[in-house]
Design a protein that fits this description.
The complex is a heterodimer of chains A (237) and B (191).
Chain A (H helix, E strand, L loop, with lengths): L1 H6 L4 H6 L11 H7 L4 H12 L6 H4 L4 H33 L4 H42 L4 H7 L4 H7 L4 H14 L6 H46 L1
Helix pairs in contact in A: 6-7, 6-11, 7-8, 7-11, 10-11
Chain B lengths: L1 E6 L3 H11 L5 E7 L2 H11 L3 E5 L5 H10 L5 E6 L11 E3 L4 H21 L7 H11 L4 H8 L3 H15 L4 H10 L10
Parallel strand pairs in B: 1-2, 1-3, 3-4, 4-5
Helix pairs in contact in B: 5-7, 5-8, 6-7
The chains are: A mainly alpha (237), B alpha/beta (191).
């Protein structure tokens, strides 16, 4: 297992989101997965798609239960909201404190980033409170081969495509922020901190790309299939 | 837009090519000259993108001198008063050539010109684009900007696409930040 992390340190994020603690000793990937009740194939597919941006075998992911995928996505959300984004915000605040000359610019940037945080949190909130429960309830009903009362009460007229319209490209703002920092902001006093901020932004962006790929190319098409099955089920009753 | 200088002693050939060049929307100006001195003056005042020149127009020494006067990257097409062999290069034309074949050769040169222009195009915003950006940053809609500047909202959209491509900034709030950083608008302008 430790070789996996040596190979690509970014995969630590995947390991953490599957709730696998560090301290691998000399155990193999298989042993670690068994110990923490993580499906080996699921782990491998996540790692491979995270490591190689081109690789995302939607067919293979269709074999896994949706709640595994949703658990993983939820853990990722938690990491963004509670750690990654506040850390970046903190760095911008620090720049504001230290740069006497262009406080105005940094303040501008901070406002821009806070606007982004608001949109991003809103997006995650919608997923956590509406979309994921909807998918889980859908999956549950299909598994029972019975339309649960809960589903009828909450989600009867809901569909994933309705949500997808709102799933606008949240990454655009991050992309802009990168370019503003790289191209247009006057050179900062402390290059090291500034660069660190840029590294963090690029990492967050790349991470979010994987995240939305998993949602848009794997989870949502799958949900569409489930919706069709659900229609059949409802018609039978 | 393409500027063309056409040098040939024959009135009828000049008229014929002028009418042929009207087929090309990209061509902005066609200046025809019949004399050597006139031709040398024209190449400096016009700074043409393409020069058509009859091979009997200058002696070879004069031609070399003339080439030195041309702006860099000018394309030269040589016009022959005789029939050309089939394999002659694309920059050689004959007064006996068919209309289709002439149009084809001229078209190729203009294409080449356009692509080379695009690669070296400046990434700086034009004054017009800055003006549009200013209005976008102030939160005006495409329609409102179009009405204000007397252009269609379609034109506004195409300007905005170019702005986004040049700056690498997609969102309106990102553009606003850019506009403030570059003093196109003041912080107080947005509320």
């Amino acid at each position: 297992m430790v070789d996996v992390v040596h190979e690509d340190i970014q995969l630590l994020a995947v390991i953490q989101r599957l709730n696998i603690p560090l301290g691998f000793k000399e155990k193999t990937v298989n042993e670690i997965c068994e110990q923490h009740e993580v499906d080996l194939l699921f782990f491998l597919q996540l790692c491979n798609s995270y490591h190689d941006k081109e690789y995302l075998p939607a067919d293979q992911f269709h074999e896994f239960p949706v709640d595994w995928i949703i658990d993983y996505l939820r853990n990722a959300h938690r990491c963004y909201i509670h750690f990654r984004i506040p850390a970046i915000e903190q760095q911008i605040v620090m720049l504001e404190k230290e740069n006497q000359g262009n406080v105005k610019n940094i303040e501008l940037l901070l406002n821009f980033f806070r606007e982004y945080i608001r949109e991003f949190s809103g997006h995650i909130d919608r997923e956590e409170t509406d979309v994921f429960p909807y998918i889980l309830s859908l999956a549950n009903s299909l598994q029972q081969q019975d339309v649960s009362q809960e589903f009828v009460n909450h989600f009867d007229d809901y569909s994933i495509d309705k949500y997808l319209e709102e799933h606008n490209l949240i990454e655009e703002k991050l992309f802009d922020l990168k370019n503003i920092l790289l191209k247009y902001l006057p050179p900062p006093v402390d290059d090291c901190k500034y660069n660190n901020l840029l590294f963090d932004l690029f990492r967050l962006e790349s991470d979010l790309m994987d995240h939305s790929d998993l949602e848009e190319k794997v989870l949502f098409p799958r949900v569409r299939n489930m919706e069709i099955k659900m229609k059949h089920l409802q018609n039978r009753h | 837009m393409v500027k063309i200088l056409f040098a040939d002693q024959s009135y009828i050939v000049r008229k014929g090519f002028t009418s042929l060049l009207e087929h090309f929307n990209e061509v902005e100006t066609v200046l025809t000259v019949a004399g050597k001195e006139e031709c040398r003056e024209a190449v400096q005042s016009l700074a043409p993108h393409i020069v058509f020149i009859n091979t009997s127009f200058f002696t070879s020494t004069e031609m070399n001198e003339f080439k030195g006067m041309m702006p860099d990257n000018t394309h030269i097409l040589y016009l022959f008063n005789s029939v050309l062999p089939d394999e002659s290069p694309a920059n050689q034309l004959s007064i006996f050539e068919s209309k289709a074949s002439l149009i084809d050769k001229i078209h190729q040169v203009i294409q080449k010109l356009n692509t080379s222009k695009n690669t070296s195009e400046s990434q700086e915003l034009s004054p017009r684009e800055k003006l549009i950006l200013k209005h976008v940053a102030l939160g005006h809609t495409n329609k409102a900007i179009g009405e204000l500047l007397f252009i269609s909202s379609h034109t506004v959209i195409s300007h905005r696409k170019n702005i986004t491509r040049k700056l690498g900034i997609k969102t309106v709030s990102g553009l606003t930040v850019y506009a403030i950083l570059n003093n196109l608008i003041q912080m107080e302008d947005i509320s």
